[in-house]
Amino acid sequence: MPGITGIITNRLSENHRVQLDAMVKPLVHEDFHKPGTVINEDEGIAVGWVSHAGSFSDCMPVWNEDRSVLLILHGEVYQDRGQIEELRTEGHQFSSADASFLVHLYEKLGRKFLEEMNGWFSGIIVDLREKQAVLFNDRFGVGRVCYHEDRDGFYFSSEAKSLLKVLPRLRALDVRSLGEVMSCGTVLQNRTLFSGISLLPAGSAWSFWKTSGVRKEVYFRPGVWEELPKLTDAEYYEQLKETWKRVLPNYFPGSERSGLSLTGGVDSRMILAWAPRAAGELPCYTFSGRYRDCNDVKLARQLANVARQPYQTIPINDLFLSQFPSLAEKVVYIGEGNLDVSGAIDLFVQREARKIAPVRVTGTNGGELLRRLVMFKPSGVVEEMVSPDMQRSLDEAVSTYFHELDCHRLSFTAFKQTPWFMNSKFMVERSQITMRLPFCDNDLVRLSYQAPPSQAQANEPALRLISEGNGALGEIGTDRALYLHSALGITKMRHLIQQFTFKAEYAYDMGMPQWLARADHALAPLRLEGFFLGRHKFHHFRVYYRDELSSYVREILLDSRTLKRSFLRKQAIEEMVRGHVSGYRNYTSEIHRLLTIELMQRQLIEQN
């Protein structure tokens, strides 16, 4: 993922310059990633960055007119156009197509400019007038900043691997964090997998002075939104409609080519219904599997046709499976162990999506932020698989998770689930494309806090908004057979059928219970997975690990290096692998996480 990296110290040395160059290199993942550096010896600051060519932040470094203020930014900001034009009328000169206006917004508002910024970002302001630097990120914490402090300086980067590159003493796993990855699929709180490396809290503005150290402050707290008054049903819907119409065009700026990742659900359909693009100008695409066209493909094709937009599918086929080993390694390297190897799917499809359009607009996080859906929770790990010490870490992870869950549900999904769990997926996807998520807009999330209890988890406001934006789209049922208006009995029956087939597919894929795995193995010649799979999902790792990827699973997990890991039990791992690749057991989730941890160990700990 493109990002920022740097060192803040009392005295820059030649070694710091060498370190900076080394810290930038791990952020360059593709040929179209553009790196750069800037050094200010007087202030003891060395900063590097990597951006997508032609992106919003591909204008670094940004100076004000008299070169007294420097801005380095990673990410995108969706600012009110009137506020931007006001800066121009005040005499500032900047491009309307990139981040250059932000340095002038800082000149006007000082550090309060962070409260005005809407988007996902991280960056640093160097104010030579005040002799200070301010390191910051967005209020959700998606603009990830890893850091380490020692006597030699303050080291920071969007990716921890930059710090591991120049500070080899940090190349050690944090046992508590490892337990959280194995149990919850991600590191919780503001920690990383690596001892001594932490995350900048969401909404941070940390000020550095060469003579007086650092002041660690937060410019936004979720409690401000939690205290907002609840609206009535009618008030909420009217404000939702007004806000959606107002903010959505900000995610389709200028003439930059954007594609819509379209599914059969409500969230991407909301975007399609109100997208500020004429017919034929918004390419739509959906990811498809090898068994049949899933519901998402069938519905998305129909939706795009109704909206008169071009449509195509991106298939998961033999090409993906042949590339899986290299894709898995790259996913683990970019995601730093927080996204398991199943994220190889995300890397593969986003590479293909970039060929359609360099910008991906998506309904991701719509359900999480408008309907407060919790997308992850602790999962059981086979106790015989891990050492007693690791089992204690797994138990602690469960306690930590439920402690963090004990808060306002929307604050959990917006300010914990999004930066901790979802962000690793975003990191991998954003290494390939520019992602725009309208449902994460500040104004929209703020409004969601005011939803009345009857609407806080309901689909009805979204379905109604779709119908008012494009009536024809509103007449087509969703992937779960949800309609705004229809015969109650028929709708209920359709919904139950879709729910049944969805759960049946899960039970025949990664959720298959062990008794069913044994029965399926006995009936293997019938190839029953062809009947159940592909109706809702486009990837099926239980079958992949059993068949096409079985050799790779054995190669990695039965390797002596893996089996000697202190937190694993050799015999249990061997039995698990043999059972799954032979088809009479199902350990899909365990294989995901074991492959991820092992690849992370080899790439980031042993080979960095």
Question: What is this structure, in a nutshell?
Answer:
The protein is of the alpha+beta class.
**What is the number of independent domains?**
2
Tally of individual helices:
26
Mean pLDDT: 92
The strand count comes to 17
Overall outline: globular
End-to-end C-alpha gap: 17 Å
Radius of gyration, whole Å: 25 Å
By helix and strand content, what is the structural category? alpha+beta
> Order of strands side by side in the largest beta sheet?
2-3-1-9-8-10
The main sheet comes to: 6 strands, antiparallel
CATH class of the largest domain, please?
Alpha Beta
CATH architecture term of the largest domain: 3-Layer(aba) Sandwich
Which fold name corresponds to the CATH topology of the largest domain?
Rossmann fold
Descriptors for this entry?
single chain; 608 residues; alpha+beta; Glutamine Phosphoribosylpyrophosphate, subunit 1, domain 1; Rossmann fold; six-stranded antiparallel β-sheet; 17 strands
Describe this structure in words.
There is one protein chain. Strands 2-3-1-9-8-10 form a six-stranded antiparallel beta sheet, with helices on one face. A six-stranded antiparallel beta sheet has the order 4-5-6-7-11-12, with helices on one face. A five-stranded parallel beta sheet has the order 15-14-13-16-17, with helices on both faces. β14, α10 and β15 form a beta-alpha-beta unit. α23 runs antiparallel to α25. It has 26 helices and 17 strands. Helix content is 44%, strand content 15%. It has two domains: 217 residues, Glutamine Phosphoribosylpyrophosphate, subunit 1, domain 1, CATH 3.60.20; 381 residues, Rossmann fold (3-Layer(aba) Sandwich). The chain starts with a strand and ends with a helix. The chain is an alpha+beta fold and 608 residues long.
